[in-house]
Write a structure and sequence with these properties.
The chain has about 500 residues and is an alpha+beta fold. Helices cover about 35% and strands about 20% of the residues. The protein has 17 helices and 21 strands. Belongs to the oxygen-dependent FAD-linked oxidoreductase family.
């Protein structure tokens, strides 16, 4: 009698006790499957080193209950199937990680949840017969470039070696090859996707074309992408590098950039970025420009206006290759980072005012910030050449076509610092830049609603910026491909279409 009572009591208590540690239940469920050998737990060296490999310290500071590292598409499907089958008061929460280079906390890592880490789904295979390359989303761009370059071909890829293929592509993707070949997402021929019900589907122009379109900009709202096929094209080297100037040249830089941006159609091999920069370790106000040309041609005419600006203090431009250029922009993983974004007209008035606002924000940081910190503000062309082929290739949801062929300027503060106690100071500096410049752009009618998702801070709303028609498309696709809203409710990281009005 007594024995029976105890058993009943234990039975009654067990589910309750388990329910208090939901994420443990999720890891336990994964451990009970063939994924057992794919799990990493807090305290293990491999677990800690995966956390350390996030680009941003705020993402590194989140501790998932476990990390699962599927080795192939089937194992991703089993992961989803297992996590969605756990029935309890709260369902399993998870994060999806490719390169882990989003700088806000929670984008691709999670506290008390499961992080699905695609590190091992990173094969890069060139298919010469079809002029395409198959890439696992966990690959870094360096893996893609070093595979393709020796074969005399390349694809549109990110400009930094360590950034992940998965996240960058699903947010749009800007490449040195974009003036000629378009945004990176528009160079995708096919996605392989694991849906919320663990089915594996193909999304292309001909198969599930609605899913194909929304993945290009819609990021992690619809499924886990497990393979991407990209177009490739002929390539025989690059020219480019970084040139540093005194800050006093800023007006000439802006004038050169405006002209350069307006002439992208005539110079489809050439890219330029203008970046006012301050590094506490250097203590000087400087302008850092990136010039890159998709042929091994020295000082091509597209850059004439920039090359006429005298007084540079350093110049690394040379005939080079994509992997060397990407290695030069490798991101370090030892700082807290703010990214934010804004789009405005290719207009000297906005750039000039943006620079005044930058000087004001910078003065405040110089007065208050401690330790090692740096600020770069990137001005990049966003010309119609980037989306001219988009519709013909199955379209995306970025909504750029609706700007009637207007050449835009893409603005991004990139700020890095040490110490969580300074998070508020630096986050506010980034927000001030974006908000004050937007207010000025609005005041002269030079504003634009587009926000580039891959640069957006989590206080921003890039999906709304794609326009009402694209929001509708994404909502319809989310409802069709994920009726139980797994990617809305169980994957809290990223920009959620269900939160868009
Ligand atoms: C040093 C540096 C250089 C950069 N250079 C460029 C550049 O040249 N051009 C450019 O356009 N951008 C650039 N970026 C921005 C970059 O595109 C974003 O940071 C991007 O999110 C990074 O992708 P990731 O896979 O590394 O990130 P992650 O943080 O792993 O992923 C980003 C988001 O995508 C989701 N996601 C990732 N993989 C998948 C998948 N397989 N299926 C579904 N959802 C997924 C994640 O859940 C997360 O919300 C750069 C960033 C850094 C830090
Ligand atoms: C829940 O489980 C995780 C992972 O096993 C563990 O680290 C954590 O301490 C547990 N939390 C509670 C409240 O028991
Ligand atoms: C790129 O150029 C460097 C020399 O600068 C060379 O060592 C390297 O092998 C080249 N990479 C590829 C993939 O061709
Ligand atoms: C930088 O300055 C040097 C020295 O004056 C000059 O030779 C070089 O061409 C300049 N580079 C650029 C990109 O303007």
């Amino acid at each position: 009698m007594f024995g029976l009572k105890v058993t009943l009591l234990a039975a009654a208590l067990t589910p309750l006790a388990v329910a208090q540690n939901e994420t443990d239940l999720c890891c336990t469920a994964l451990a009970g499957s063939s994924l057992k050998a794919r799990l990493l737990y807090p305290g293990q060296t491999a677990f800690e080193s995966r956390l350390d490999s996030y680009f941003d310290v705020k993402q590194q500071s989140l501790t998932p209950s476990c990390i699962v590292q599927p080795k192939n598409t089937k194992e991703v499907a089993l992961t989803i199937k297992t996590l969605t089958a756990v029935s309890s008061a709260k369902s399993c929460k998870f994060a999806i990680r490719s390169g882990g280079h989003t700088p806000y906390a929670g984008a691709s890592n999670i506290e008390d949840g499961v992080t699905i880490d695609l590190q091992y789904i990173s094969a890069v295979q060139y298919d010469s017969k079809n002029s395409l390359v198959k890439v696992g989303p966990g690959a870094r761009w360096n893996d893609v470039f070093t595979t393709l370059e020796p074969l005399g071909v390349i694809t549109t890829g990110g400009r930094s070696s360590t950034v992940g293929v998965g996240g960058l592509t699903l947010g749009g993707g800007i490449s040195y090859f974009s003036p000629e070949h378009g945004l990176i997402c528009d160079n995708v021929l096919e996605f392989e996707v694991v849906l919320a019900d663990s089915r594996v589907v193909t999304a292309s122009k001909t198969q599930n074309p609605d899913l194909f379109t929304v993945l290009k900009g819609g990021n992690n709202n619809f499924g886990i992408v497990t393979q991407i096929k990209f177009r490739t094209f002929k390539y025989d080297g690059m020219w480019g590098g970084l040139v540093v100037y005194p800050e006093t040249t800023i007006q000439d830089q802006f004038k050169a950039l405006i002209k350069f941006s307006n002439n992208v159609d005539k110079n489809v091999k050439s890219s330029a970025i203008v970046m006012p920069v301050y590094q506490s370790s250097v203590g000087a106000d400087l302008i850092l420009n990136a010039y890159d040309h998709a042929e091994p041609v020295v000082r091509p005419a597209a850059f004439d206006e920039f090359l006429a600006i005298p007084g540079n203090v350093s110049d690394s431009t040379a005939v080079t290759n994509m992997s060397d250029l990407a290695a030069a922009l490798e991101g370090s993983t030892t700082s807290s980072v703010y990214f934010g974004t804004l789009t405005f007209a290719n207009d000297l008035r906005v750039m000039t005012e943006a620079h005044e606002i930058y000087k004001d924000v910078l003065a405040n940081l110089k007065a208050r910030a401690t330790g090692d910190w740096q600020i770069y503000v990137l001005y990049q062309p966003l010309p119609p050449a980037y989306w001219k082929d988009s519709a013909a290739r199955g379209g995306n949801v970025l909504g750029l076509e609706r700007f009637n062929g207007q050449t835009l300027c893409l603005y991004q503060p990139y700020i890095s610092w040490q110490g969580a106690e300074q998070d508020a100071l630096f986050q506010q500096a980034g927000a001030d830049l974006v908000n004050r410049i937007r207010a000025y752009a609005v005041s002269i009618g030079a504003d634009n609603p587009y926000l580039y998702l891959d640069y957006a801070d989590n206080t921003q709303d890039p999906l709304t910026g794609y326009g009402a028609e694209n929001v509708k498309k994404m909502k319809a696709a989310a409802k069709k491909y994920d009726p139980k809203q797994i990617f809305q409710k169980n994957v809290p990281g990223g920009f959620k279409i269900s939160k868009v009005a």
